[in-house]
Fold:
Amino acid sequence: MGFVQEARENHVKKKVEEALRSKMKQKALKECDQFTIKYAECASGRTLSVVWQCRKQAKALNECLHQYTNDSILEEMKKGYMLEQDKKVL
Structure:
């Protein structure tokens, strides 16, 4: 695959990338809902102490979210979007 073709596949408009990021985040929150609930329960009624009291729940939530929101996932979503666009053109 040539450089131009590869660059085209990896390039999407900024608005499209923002929409894909939003979709990625929504999926992550849905998939990690149980961790979000546990963190929210721990944080409920706390102010400053939430930092050290809920550290374990926050770490678990962040690890879960990272599984669904990272650069490789975004790149796969971009490739899928570009393939869909190519099919529409044909």
Summary: The chain has a mean pLDDT of 88.
